[in-house]
Specification:
Blueprint lengths: L5 H24 L5 H16 L15 E4 L5 H10 L3 E3 L6 E4 L3 H5 L29 H20 L11 E5 L1 H5 L1 H13 L4 E7 L2 E2 L2 E2 L8 H7 L3 E5 L5 H13 L5 E6 L22 H11 L11 H32 L1 H11 L17 E6 H13 L5 E5 L3 H4 L10 E2 L8 E3 L4 H13 L3 E7 L3 H14 L4 E5 L17 H6 L5 E3 L4 H11 L7 E4 L4 E4 L16 E4 L8 E5 L3 H14 L4 E5 L3 H5 L3 H7 L7 E8 L4 H4 L4 E5 L8 H8 L3 H12 L2
Parallel strand pairs: 1-4, 4-5, 5-9, 8-9, 11-13, 11-14, 12-13, 14-15, 15-17, 16-17, 20-21, 20-22, 22-23
Antiparallel strand pairs: 2-3, 6-7, 10-18, 19-21
Length: 688
């Protein structure tokens, strides 16, 4: 038998380094998943070394290819690549090149406190990680947003001779990703939009935690994806590097839609399924099994965390050399582009830094006082369109509810993003709520200012992706309308009760529930400059009176989360009425009635508990004087969380059950949301 060529020896030395690093890290941590990393090392090595357009010196280069490890439990596969390619770290703003992203010591401390190698890849914690994937299905769904962003950026900013954006998005997924509903939603959307810059690689290893996939998953994946408009390639052996290259070449040549590459593997060793058995899925191999695996690879059995110098050199000549060349060429191209199209270049620079154009809020105007007013959703639609005309990279859409939640951009030139029409700023996401939020995350990861809209009740469907917005510190705008039992006749299935409390419980998420049209204006004015902060903007379906701000305090107080709206600021009140959203006007009505009775009351509009909680204690005490224990909170939602603000001497007028199907006024009477009911509670607290 002929000796292997030097290049082949070099390739397998590097592949086996990735494998053995994974085995050693998991064994040292005594937890983790080594099997998938071992099986897919040939795939990921081939992709990074021969295809991925990525410069380890600047992992935030705008036109880089994206690599998403949706099977996040196989994190050592990615950490090994980041270390061997010597990817450089960036700071918390993702703008300044720094130290190596993943050191060998980080790998030694896999899954340990403060290591750059946590159990699952974490965006903003480990440079080179394109997104936090965690829960299965969310990684591939997020990759659809990245691919969509690439197509939109190309259609919007490329010019003849200046192809600034042509990046591809690769995502490695497994059986769990394809079983999860969000993965199916995202695959359907990507196929419909014909996102030919998107490639999912499916690790078809036949194993889940409970055992063989035959227990639960016997569908024909290839046929399903072909039916969704995907091209499907098949690699029968994960160790067949030549076959992997042919499949990746086919993806690069395909312009008709997204590609799924099905790769057959055996978890643990990467051998063809017919030749081996699966290793344990979610636990270390054990010392003897590690030694046996290393022996099979021709590796020193007693070596720990061994990285031969030749492997670093291999990566230097592969992904590093190619990435440096491609990025250098792109930067030269962008320099010429900036001379030819300075305004567009300025937009791109601001987009990458998540900054805003000068005068972005020039179109924002106050709404006149109006007792009839307008709904939160209508006010937001007007403000959204005013802002979007001055922020060209603000785009988004709704899960088939844009006419109802007023999230459509209606000005000339806004257009629709559709198959073959990728420059539109209105996204039609279909009845795919979970994927809609994940796609918005993918857009934000590509530095687009993204929003997605739906009914508040459906935030339950989106929670996994919304949680990742907060975890990744992405400035996604989650627009939620139909915010309360004000939905009326639609009944309890459509009336959110516990959802505000649920969003408030999420670390890093800011909820804003505006009281009237001018608080909506201030909400947008507040959130647009945020660079690392998601928001849930919660809006009413029903009209809300537009308060007379010459009589009551300015809506600018919204930026501080809560403010004194009504009442003598120089006098300590007998009772404080605290409310959000549609209940603020109710509190104002109760306040006026109490004043007529000689009771000194104060109305506090608290559109955002999260923002108010960030204020200095002296400001919070100014708004809610500690000495005033007679407090009434009013919200057409669960009372959960309000005890903090009303204290033991206060009362909460809120929902303690689900709603009912009836006209709004009947519901308000039934559940106690009337001025008379609030006044009665206030009287009790002040002893009158």
């Amino acid at each position: 038998m002929a000796a292997p060529a030097p290049a082949e020896v070099e390739t397998w030395r590097s592949i086996n380094t990735v494998r053995t690093l994974a085995m050693d890290a998991v064994q040292a941590a005594r937890s983790g998943h080594p099997g998938t990393a071992m099986a897919l090392a040939p795939l990921v090595y081939t992709l990074w070394q021969k295809y991925l357009r990525f410069d380890p010196e600047l992992p935030i280069w705008a036109n880089r290819d994206r690599f998403v490890l949706s099977v996040g439990h196989a994190s050592m596969l990615l950490y090994g690549m980041l270390h061997l390619a010597r990817v450089k770290a960036v700071n918390a703003d993702y703008e300044t090149v720094g130290q190596p992203s993943v050191s060998l010591e980080d790998i030694r401390r896999f899954r340990q406190l403060d290591s750059r190698c946590p159990g699952h890849p974490e965006y903003r914690w480990t440079s080179g990680v394109e997104c936090t994937t965690g829960p299965l299905g969310t990684g591939i769904a997020t990759s659809v947003g990245m691919a969509l962003a690439g197509r939109w950026q190309a259609a919007t900013y490329n010019r003849p001779g200046f192809d600034l954006f042509d990046f591809d998005v690769y995502a490695v997924c497994g059986d769990g990703d394809l079983m999860e509903g969000v993965g199916a939603e995202a695959a359907s959307l990507a196929g419909h939009l014909r996102l030919s810059n998107l490639c999912w690689v499916y690790d078809n290893n036949g194993i889940t935690i409970e055992g063989s996939t035959t227990l639960t998953f016997t569908e024909d994946v290839a046929t399903r994806f072909r039916g969704l408009g995907w091209t499907v390639e098949h690699v029968e052996d994960a160790n067949d590097v030549a076959a992997l290259e042919r499949a990746l070449d086919a993806f690069r040549a395909n312009q008709g839609g997204p590609t799924l590459i099905v790769v057959d593997s055996v978890i643990g060793y990467g051998a063809p399924r017919k030749q081996g058995t699966a290793a344990a899925h979610g636990e270390p191999l054990g010392e003897e099994e590690v030694r046996a695996a290393k022996r099979a690879y021709g590796w020193p059995e007693d070596a720990q965390f061994l990285v031969p110098e030749e492997v670093y050199a291999d990566f230097d000549g592969g992904v590093r050399a190619r990435g440096a060349r491609l990025r250098g060429g792109w930067e030269e191209l962008f320099g010429r582009y900036a001379e030819r199209y300075p305004d567009l270049a300025d937009q791109l620079n601001r987009m990458q830094k998540r900054s805003l154009p000068d005068g972005w809020d020039a179109g924002l105007e106050d709404f006149p006082a109006d007792p009839k007013g307008l709904s939160g959703r209508d006010a937001s639609g007007k403000v959204l369109n005013a802002v979007a005309q001055r922020v060209p990279w603000l785009l988004g859409g709704s899960a088939d509810l844009a006419p109802s939640n007023k999230s459509r951009l209606t000005f000339d030139g806004a257009g629709d993003f559709a198959p073959g029409e990728h420059d539109g700023r209105n996204l039609h996401l279909g009845v795919r709520e979970h994927a809609a939020a994940a796609v918005a995350n993918g857009l934000a990861l590509s530095k687009i200012r993204a929003y997605q809209a739906g009914f508040l009740i459906f935030s339950d469907f989106q929670r996994g992706a919304v949680r990742l917005s907060a975890l990744m510190e992405l400035p996604v705008i989650h627009l939620y309308t139909h915010d309360s039992i004000g939905v009326g006749e639609d009944g309890p299935t459509h009336q959110p009760v516990e959802h505000l409390a649920s969003l408030r419980a999420m670390p890093g998420m800011v909820e804003i529930r505006p009281a009237d049209a001018n608080e909506v204006v201030e909400a947008w004015r507040t959130i647009m400059p945020w660079r690392h902060q998601p928001v849930a903007l919660v809006l009413s379906r029903q009209p809300l009176p537009t308060l007379d701000r010459s009589r009551y305090a300015s809506a600018a107080g919204l930026a501080r989360g809560a403010y004194v709206l009504a009442g003598d600021p120089g006098r300590e009140p007998d009772v404080i009425l605290i409310a959000t959203g549609s209940e603020v006007s109710l509190a104002v009505s109760a306040h006026e009635q109490l004043r007529a009775e000689g009771v000194a009351s104060r109305v506090v509009s608290m559109p955002s508990m999260a923002l108010f909680d960030r204020q200095p204690q002296d400001y919070r005490d100014e708004v809610l004087p500690p000495a005033v224990t007679a407090r009434v909170a009013i919200e057409q939602a669960s009372s959960f969380g309000w005890d903090r603000w009303v204290g033991p001497g206060g009362r909460v007028v809120a929902m303690t059950t689900f709603g009912s199907s009836a006209p709004l006024k009947d519901l308000q009477t039934k559940f106690g949301f009337t001025p008379e009911a609030v006044v009665s509670v206030a009287r009790e607290l002040v002893g009158r």
